[in-house]
Design brief:
heterodimer; A: about 230 residues; alpha/beta; 11 strands; globular; B: 60s Ribosomal Protein L30, Chain: A; seven-stranded mixed β-sheet; about 35% helix
């Protein structure tokens, strides 16, 4: 099984994702340039973080219209695994694969620090391995998740809220929310649960020298794809 | 344009005619202090490696430190002070971009950014309100600019420092440092060669921004400076990110003979220096340069400092390999001329020759000046400063005052705006260790990085100040377990034409050079920024030391404090600190608690510092110690407070015994700034072994006390006991800067 790491001009976490997958998780990974139109031979998709096309327009808006994203949408429709991290989450929202949007942080500033996350959904392929509070870093200027009241209710009812920002003990609080996201939402799933978008960077927490290995609890899902799940 | 009458006459003599307008502009930038180093060159000869490089093969290999496994590290500091004074966001952003290209041009991948910043006071009541507000504005927008550019370009900002002093009002200092990694068999050259080889312009199009930026950097700031906003360049970090990937990919084709970034003086500097280094000429047709506006003159094209551009010479017939790569990344690439063997740089615009000059006249004939030097009165007066006349402050309040001083307070508000983790190689980030540690892929080794400087010490004693900066930066990287290897320096001073400034410069550089030599950490690169003056006078002399250290195993890096609540704390120090110093001269305590900037700092014992660093490297490698944190501004009290706050644990210590006999004064024991001292933590039961180990390195070591789960910092000194709740310390330390900055920054970033 190989994971397609989508590469837009301005992606800057593409190499991090690639190495994390190949070196730390032990799954195959390959870059796929944004102008490509096929995902043949790939078992999963990783849309990495960065500043696609400089994000001079609304974050992720240009990337969402790149040729490869039509294929990513088709791939996702088939129920196959897609993960979007940070700018990748923004791109997935812009393509309509995930509900809601990501706005400028409440502080109006970029924020880079470690946060704690609690998995709310415990059944999806992405979240079933996360059985404790995990600690991984965020790094974003526009990560405040918002959606309308109806969507929020649907997310709650459909167990589509993947992760919430919490404190070390696992309690949801305003202090634990790094960007002012509604209901402390850090990541969401699509209805089927195969598409995950999240602002924190699991690929930055996959080995001891990086200060945390908690990202493995999410990304290990990709090894099970290889096992045929 | 910034040339003197005698310089103009020299140009006429060298050319044997009057220069054209474009040529005059080219001479003006190449002979500016920024490019020509005309006042600093004689003093920089103190740097051994610099001198050897000047006399020998050039700088390319001098700037690389081999770390084994076929890898090398290169690093450099550069200032962007004047642009940041008038347009802080873009000034700082383009400072980051410029130094990244300096590293890229060696064929290295940029893996870390650092920065060192200085501003006037930002707290209400510390000066005229309008000045304070302007300082805050500059501070916030410089930080935003660094974040906006650095985050987007995908190079982690892993360490830095920020200082505040009234003399920086009106002339902030913004020094950016970049570190890159390369394969030592793939170092590129900036020399042009091969008659007929195409000269290729790469990157963004040229516009009318930043014309004469280098000249602007080489004069004092005044009321007119605001009108120089158009001299400030505009950064495009997205283009820079593409430029990094495209350049590294194009270099892998093997079709590139030489490459240089277009930094200060843009096309002038790159065409002149590449020709001069290769002892060749070039024919350049400016009509072929990608332009943002068509009506640009030859003068404007040659002097523009538009950002995100490189110049390369490729093998004839292989230019398309290079051009294809750049076009794939969405960048401009155009052949604008070719290499000639006549040794003359000929530049044409719309069929007309606008410059025809031997490039060596611009690079090798820049006049060199030595200013008169004068020892300032304040320096002599400081020698007779008597601490006996300063009454002792209550230690309880003094520590809180120090921790709340923006100079010492947590810079969390700053570094949380920087992406510290992108590239996933950051093994120790801001606030967690005495230096940052990067664990590059492809090697087990770690790279420790630090940038540091203390202008109060350097002002009061420039020679010691220079030495202390090197010793402290080395000690900082050693505290992570890394062996100090090399220095890059950023030298920020006032006008070299002031006799006392030139004296400060001379002594500070001598101090750096002597310490670098004694400690085996050569100065491999650097930057000089003069004319840091405003209506308020010149800035304090501010030499900054960027230090590189190597860890044999990145996994063994040490934080500044251990999370073990049972750990014991030891003081390890060089032995002959003497008993004649109280360590309060030029100290933070004297400045911020007693309100005096006076006295001389204690100079370092350099051989002792070397032993201390070796001990730390050995102790980390053998896992004998759990953490190490050096004593610097605010003395041991601030060191211990920082440890307690970072660990969120209590600490109980006694400051008695041989390590504290240097003074009778309680304030000197708590806050005195003697160099060559480090607090290490060890697993309970290992104290004696580590004391013995320190002694085997010729060092003094003694028990101080231990970490505790109590939640208080308790210090017993003499028969006096002080205690602070750690949460109270954290409140003061963490919120001091956050409280005074507003939250109205624009943010040009996302992702």
């Amino acid at each position: 099984m190989k994971v397609a790491v989508i590469r837009f001009p301005g992606s800057n976490c593409d190499q991090d994702a690639f190495h994390s997958l190949r070196d730390d998780i032990g799954v195959g990974a390959e870059y796929v340039w944004y102008e490509e139109t096929s995902l043949d031979g790939f078992g999963a998709v990783f849309v990495p973080g960065g500043f696609s096309f400089g994000d001079y327009l609304r974050c992720g808006a240009m990337a969402a219209r790149a040729p490869i994203m039509t294929e990513v949408a088709r791939f996702a429709e088939e129920g196959r695994p897609v993960i979007g991290v940070c700018n990748g989450f923004q791109v997935l929202c812009e393509t309509g694969l995930l509900p809601g949007a990501l706005l400028l942080n409440e502080s109006q500033k970029f924020v880079c620090k470690y946060v704690h996350l609690r998995a709310e959904n415990r059944t999806s392929m992405w979240t079933q391995g996360v059985d404790k509070v995990i600690r991984i870093p965020v790094a974003h200027g526009e990560g405040r998740y918002v959606c309308d009241a109806d969507t929020l209710k649907k997310l709650q009812d459909g167990e589509q809220i993947a992760f919430r920002y919490v404190d070390e003990a696992g309690t949801q609080s305003a202090d634990a929310n790094p960007n002012g996201s509604v209901e402390n939402i850090a990541g969401v799933l699509n209805v089927k649960g195969n598409v995950l978008g999240l602002m924190p960077h699991p690929e930055r927490a996959t080995k001891n020298t990086l200060g945390s290995t908690d990202g493995l609890t999410i990304l290990k899902a990709l090894t099970m794809v290889g096992a045929g799940l | 344009m910034g040339l003197t009458q005698s310089e103009f006459e020299l140009i006429c003599k060298l050319l044997d005619r009057e220069p054209s307008y474009t040529e005059l502009g080219m001479f003006a930038v190449m002979w500016s202090e920024h490019c020509g180093y005309k006042f600093s060159r004689p003093v920089l000869a103190y740097f051994k490696r610099y001198k050897e490089a000047l006399e020998g093969e050039g700088f390319e290999n001098a700037g690389v430190v081999e770390i084994g496994d076929g890898l090398g590290v290169t690093m450099k500091v550069e200032s962007h002070n004047h642009p940041s004074a008038v347009e802080p966001y873009q000034g700082a952003a383009t400072g980051v971009g410029g130094i990244i290209r300096d590293i890229l041009t060696m064929g290295a991948r940029p893996i870390a950014s650092l920065n060192s910043l200085r501003f006037g006071p930002i707290r209400d009541g510390e000066g005229e309100q309008a000045v304070i507000e302007r300082n805050r504005y500059l501070f916030e927008h410089v930080v935003s600019g660094i974040a906006g550019y650095g985050n987007c370009v995908g190079v982690p900002t892993v360490a830095g420092e920020v200082g505040f002093h009234p003399r920086y009002s009106g002339n902030p200092l913004v020094n950016a440092m970049c570190v890159g990694i390369l394969r030592t068999d793939e170092i590129t050259t900036a020399a042009a060669s091969g008659e007929g080889n195409p000269v290729i312009y790469l990157g963004s199009a040229t516009g009318k921004d930043g014309i004469h930026g280098a000249t602007f950097a080489s004069t004092e700031l005044d009321e007119e400076s605001e009108s120089k906003r158009p001299n400030v360049q505009i950064g495009d970090p997205f283009a820079e990110k593409q430029l990094i990937e495209a350049t590294l990919e194009a270099l892998r084709t093997g079709a590139i003979v030489g490459i240089q970034d277009m930094g200060a003086a843009g096309l002038t500097c790159s065409t002149v220096e590449m020709s001069s280094k290769g002892s060749v000429g070039m024919n350049i047709d400016l009509d072929l340069v990608p332009m943002r506006e068509d009506d640009m003159t030859g003068y404007e094209l040659m002097l523009s400092e538009s950002q995100e551009r490189m110049l390369a010479v490729a093998e004839k017939g292989r230019e398309h390999e290079v051009i294809d790569v750049f076009q794939k990344w969405g960048l401009k690439a155009a052949v604008i001329g070719y290499v000639t063997n006549d040794g003359i740089l000929t530049v044409t615009r719309q069929g007309e020759v606008v410059a025809k000059v031997d490039p060596k006249l611009l690079t090798d004939h820049c006049p060199v000046y030595q200013s008169p030097m004068e020892e300032p009165l304040y320096y002599r007066n400081a020698a007779s400063f008597d601490i006996g006349l300063v009454s002792q402050a209550d230690p309880q309040g003094a520590l809180l005052t120090l921790l709340g001083t923006p100079e010492i307070a947590s810079k969390r508000w700053v570094y949380q705006q920087y992406d510290q983790h992108v590239q996933t190689q950051t093994a120790l980030e801001c606030g967690r260790g005495d230096a940052a540690v990067i664990a590059p892929r492809g090697t087990k080794k770690g790279i420790a990085l630090k940038i540091d400087g203390n202008s109060r010490q350097t002002y009061l004693h420039p020679y010691f100040g220079g030495q202390l900066a090197v010793a402290e930066a080395a000690r900082n990287v050693a505290c992570t377990g890394a062996a100090p290897q090399a220095v890059t320096d950023g030298l920020n001073f006032g006008s070299p034409q002031s006799a006392h400034v030139y004296w400060q410069f001379n002594h500070a550089v001598k101090g750096i050079a002597d310490a670098a030599e004694a400690m085996g950490t050569p100065v491999i690169s650097g930057n000089v920024s003069f004319y840091n003056e405003s209506d308020l006078g010149e800035v304090p002399p501010t030499p900054l030391i960027g230090m590189l250290g190597i860890l044999e195993d990145a996994a063994s890096r040490l934080p500044l404090v251990s999370s073990d609540p049972e750990a014991s704390l030891l003081l390890v120090s060089v032995t002959d600190l003497g008993i004649t110093h109280d360590g309060l001269g030029a100290s933070a305590y004297l400045a911020y608690v007693a309100g005096q900037e006076d006295g001389h700092p204690v100079g370092p014992n350099l051989s002792g510092e070397v032993s201390l660093d070796k001990f730390l490297v050995e102790a980390a490698a053998t896992k004998s110690i759990l953490s190490a944190h050096d004593l610097s501004e605010g003395g041991i009290a601030v060191t211990l407070a920082e440890m307690a706050m970072e660990a969120n644990l209590g600490i109980e210590v006694e400051l008695n015994g041989s390590g504290f006999v240097y003074s009778e004064r309680v304030d000197a024991k708590l806050f005195g700034e003697l160099p060559g001292r480090v607090v290490v933590s060890v697993k309970a039961g290992q104290e004696d072994a580590v004391v013995l180990m320190a002694k085997s390195f010729g060092l003094a070591a003694q028990r101080l006390g231990k970490m505790s789960a109590s939640g208080s910092l308790s210090i017993r000194v003499g028969d006096q006991s002080c205690s602070w709740s750690v949460s109270q310390l954290q409140e003061v330390f963490n919120t001091s800067i956050e409280k005074v900055v507003t939250h109205q920054n624009r943010i040009e970033t996302a992702g």
